[in-house]
Amino acid sequence: MDSEKQRLSIEAAKLYYQFDYSQQEIADRLGVSRPTVSRLLQHAKEQGYVRIEIIDPREDVNALAKALQDQYRLDTVLVCYSPLNEYEEIKKSISKKAASFIQEVVKDGDIIGVTWGTTMHEIALQLEPKPVRGVEVVQLKGGVSHSQVNTNAMEIVNLFADAFHTVARYLPLPVIFDNLAVKEMVDKDRHIGRIIELGKQANIAVFTVGSVKEDSLLFRLGYFNQEEQEQLRRTGAGDICSRFFDEKGNICSEEINNRTVGIDLPELRKKEKAILVAGGQRKIEAIRAALAGGYANIMITDQFSAQALLQ
């Protein structure tokens, strides 16, 4: 009788745990009642025929965060759990985590500098109002597009400003000028100068990284000719605030950089909180290069990207 119970318990456990049969389907297959199947499954667990292991992703991400913090000498790392290693799913997960973190750390009198891009747009959409006073929100780079592709630049800075009960400060310019002389002339404008200076004064900067692949948002916006795109793909690893850098985090084209409107990358190293929000396999090279350049002291990413960055 015991050997028969053992056989039935193991058979029921295999059908239930390995092949996803319902208890009623198992009862029909074994020729017993459904309550008997329930008792057989319980017996299988008690006898050690079945071992159930619970994987808590929060435990794994905490360990990954600590490893990243140590390896890249960051002040804070938050690794969120993404159910899939797919860019859109990762973007949703890290944006939600970033919005929550930003809301937590912003306090009265802060100056928040923001960039634009699809990740930044997701973060902005997730922000909830917070009752703070004297906060300012400023755009860290120009946001006017040369194409029909929407940067959501104005919406992003408006959403940040709405969340913290303030007025948005825009840079209503192309992010990269075709002509250096025109860009230098614009730099002399008092209004533009005040906005750029406010970006320098920001104690919080929120930004992501772009890749130098063909589907890069900046490439689709029409700022670069074919020769410039090829140069950036050949020498660049990524961009922050539309300033392109190589694998060591150094500017890879001074000529393009001089035509770019917005905060200079070394200014990010001076921020109290320089928050890099990025993830996805196509951005690993850019993230690693940004960290090599020391442009962030806080990073928010996902467990798949964290694992890749630690390799």
TrEMBL record:
SUPFAM superfamilies in the cross-refs: NagB/RpiA/CoA transferase-like (SSF100950), Winged helix' DNA-binding domain (SSF46785)
HTH crp-type domain ranges (all copies): 1-58
High-level lineage: Bacteria, Bacillati, Bacillota, Bacilli, Bacillales
Extent of the signal sequence: none
Entry keyword set: DNA-binding, Transcription, Transcription regulation
Name listed for the protein in its UniProt record: RNA polymerase subunit sigma-70
TM segment ranges: none
PANTHER family xrefs: TRANSCRIPTIONAL REGULATOR LSRR, TRANSCRIPTIONAL REGULATOR-RELATED
InterPro entries on file: HTH_CRP, NagB/RpiA_transferase-like, SorC_transcr_regulators, Sugar-bd_dom_put, WH_DNA-bd_sf
Organism: Brevibacillus choshinensis
Keyword field contains Transcription: yes
Record-stated family: Belongs to the SorC transcriptional regulatory family.
Transcription regulation in keyword set: yes
